[in-house]
Design goal:
The structure holds 2 protein chains of 2 kinds.
Chain A lengths: L1 H5 L9 H29 L3 H4 L13 H9 L2 H32 L5 H13 L2 H14 L6 H26 L2 H9 L4 H12 L1 H17 L2 H6 L8 H6 L9 H21 L1 H13 L2
Helix pairs in contact in A: 2-14, 4-14, 5-8, 5-11, 6-8, 8-11, 9-10, 11-15
Chain B lengths: L5 H30 L2 E4 L4 E4 L3 H7 L2 H35 L8 H12 L2 H11 L6 H9 L15 H26 L3 H9 L4 H29 L3 H6 L11 H10 L4 H33 L1
Antiparallel strand pairs in B: 1-2
Classes of the chains: A mainly alpha, B mainly alpha.
Chain lengths: 286, 298
């Protein structure tokens, strides 16, 4: 908040009431956006007996037992590791393959570029449900059912359109003269891509990687269908299928929710400018 | 290698993407079409070619039409609400921060968080808020006096779908807000100054300057959000599982249950294909609309 009030001096027009009104409005927007998450945070530190009564809204006593149970006695820890492996490998594959393709589309004279881009984009419009049964059967044929590889590969492919789309527009913004100069100097296109374009496109690559990582971390339907055991379930699947013996363990679920959200939430806050730039670029061009 | 022509290089570099997309995205679409012409239920050892029979069955399947209605109702309601709330929030945030600068990191983070929360987690968050006995929503509404008795939001056939819409609006409005806010920040301020000098009020300025200039972004938000809402699966699946009494069963959920709970791969694929056709039709419609819009503005 501080820089908001600092970068605009409180001029004579601005009265105390306006500042108050502004704060109130900000607060209500904040409550709308963050309220549900905050309530989950409050729930996650409540004692079990406080979970089944309201009021009080804020507990007098706090406990970390839900976090303990989630991290050490539930499949969540394993699923976090699974999600990390899946999301990192999906991001790597998607960005490497996407970069090559985007470079070709942006700089090399291949035929039918609009058609290719259109095709790539249309795959991102596919409802996942339309491909899920053949995909499931394919993975089963290949012996990949219930493996992290199947989930990672699927995530990589379904985030590829986004990566190609974003990176093509980034590569197009880089001056073509650089490329021709490198070619005249005897670089192959691949070397020109790696020595010249890759470093220059680093902000674009970061944006694409972030969006792919967040997509993969949050994806549910493919991960649910392609996995069948705690050993391979990703974090969203584990949260959805959170085990409850007799009644729903709301405190544990709240703790699990926050733990699973933490990595992507932190990324979103740390790299907010990149993400907003990516979202606007990705869709404005779309 | 260096002998390769530029064009050959182009195809070479683009090839891995095409191979992956072909195998994991395009081939399954074709395979789903093919599967939909079979009656395949592994449990009963059934696997026979039956032509279009699945589609004939689909046509007279009341549950399919109900799922269509639920999906369209959900989509219309949530996309409209997202646009309206998203626009409202964007205007508010734009007014609250400096006209010249970018939006502050705090407000951006605030708006971005619901977007980053995994959909499944947001479903769990709202499930807890909607809990009939000690959920926060009932408590607050009772305290304020808006309701006299607790409502079992997710078990009530009339409320459940609306509860799902509210959750979806919370989760996805940030996307609309961020895009519209970026658009608002880029609007030429002198236009507003000129309009004010000419005596235009706030509503007039909004209607004649803001709205027309932001139209491309509004259309884009509309396209993206409609596509997502029509395909909705995880949010509603985790929140209600399609219940109560299938009142929140969207097309994706019905197809998923047919495929993986009753293991009817043939009929499930026909459902999935019908859905693919619906989405393809919608996107074709949007492409036409977009093209017309951009041609007019160009």
């Amino acid at each position: 908040m501080s820089d908001m009030t600092e970068d605009r001096p409180l001029g004579n027009v601005r009265t105390l009431r306006q500042v108050g009104l502004k704060l109130c409005l900000m607060l209500s927007v904040g409550l709308f956006c963050l309220g549900p998450i905050l309530w989950q945070a409050v729930t996650s530190v409540k004692l079990d007996q406080d979970l089944v009564r309201l009021p009080p809204i804020l507990p007098e006593q706090m406990t970390l037992s839900h976090y303990g149970r989630v991290l050490f006695e539930s499949p969540i820890a394993q699923s976090l590791a699974n999600s990390l492996i899946v999301a990192v490998s999906a991001t790597t594959v998607s960005i490497v393959v996407g970069t090559l393709c985007a470079f070709a589309l942006a700089r090399l004279p291949i035929a039918g570029k609009p058609v290719i881009l259109g095709l790539v984009l249309s795959t991102s419009m596919f409802p996942p449900i339309a491909v899920i049964s053949p995909l499931y059967l394919l993975m089963r044929e290949l012996g990949l059912r219930d493996t992290l590889l199947a989930v990672g590969l699927t995530h990589a492919v379904y985030s590829l359109p986004l990566a190609v789309w974003l990176l093509t527009s980034f590569f197009r913004q880089l001056p073509a003269e650089l490329y021709y100069a490198a070619r005249v100097d005897g670089c192959t296109p691949l070397r020109a891509l790696f020595t010249i374009f890759f470093p220059l496109a680093r902000p674009g690559l970061a944006v694409a990687a972030l969006l792919v990582f967040i997509y993969s971390w949050n994806e549910f339907m493919f991960a649910l269908t392609l996995t069948a055991s705690d050993a391979t379930r990703t974090a969203p699947v584990a949260v959805a299928l959170f085990p409850g013996l007799y009644e729903i363990p709301w405190g544990d679920i709240a703790a699990a929710s926050l733990v699973v959200t933490l990595p992507v939430g932190a990324l979103a806050i740390l790299f907010q400018r990149h993400i907003v730039a990516g979202l606007t670029a990705g869709s404005v061009k779309g | 290698m260096s002998r390769l022509s530029e064009r050959a290089w182009g195809y070479l570099l683009a090839a891995p993407a095409f191979v992956l997309l072909g195998f994991v995205a395009l081939a399954p679409i074709g395979a789903a079409l093919w599967l939909s012409l079979y009656r395949r239920m592994p449990v009963f050892g059934l696997d026979e070619f039956i032509g279009a029979a699945n589609y004939v069955q689909l046509w007279s399947d009341e549950r399919f039409w109900a799922a269509c209605r639920v999906t369209l109702y959900f989509t219309t309601l949530s996309v409209t609400a997202e646009l309206v709330v998203g626009f409202g929030l964007a205007l508010l945030l734009d007014r609250l921060t400096s006209r010249s600068g970018r939006s502050s990191p705090w407000e951006q983070a605030m708006v971005l968080l619901p977007w980053a929360v995994p959909t499944v987690v947001s479903a769990q968050i709202w499930k807890w808020l909607y809990q009939p006995d000690y959920g926060l929503l009932n408590y607050l509404l009772l305290r304020v006096g808006l309701i006299d008795a607790p409502i079992d939001w997710l078990a009530d056939p009339d409320w459940a779908i609306h509860a799902a819409v509210v959750m979806d609006v919370w989760k996805t409005t940030p996307f609309a807000t961020l895009l519209l806010l970026a658009g608002l920040k880029a609007l030429p301020q002198d236009l507003y100054a000129a309009a004010t000098v000419d005596g235009a009020g706030p509503w007039e300025r909004f209607r004649r300057i803001t709205l027309p200039l932001l139209m491309p972004i509004v259309v884009i938000v509309l396209v993206f959000r409609t596509m997502d809402a029509v395909r909705v699966f995880d949010a509603v699946f985790v929140l209600t599982g399609g219940g109560p009494g299938n009142t929140t069963e969207t097309l994706s959920i019905y197809a998923y249950k047919t495929l993986f709970q009753t293991l009817q791969f043939g009929y499930g694929s026909a459902l999935a294909t019908a859905m693919f056709i619906l989405v393809a039709g919608l996107s074709a419609l949007y492409v036409v609309l977009l093209r017309r819009h951009f041609q007019e503005s160009a």
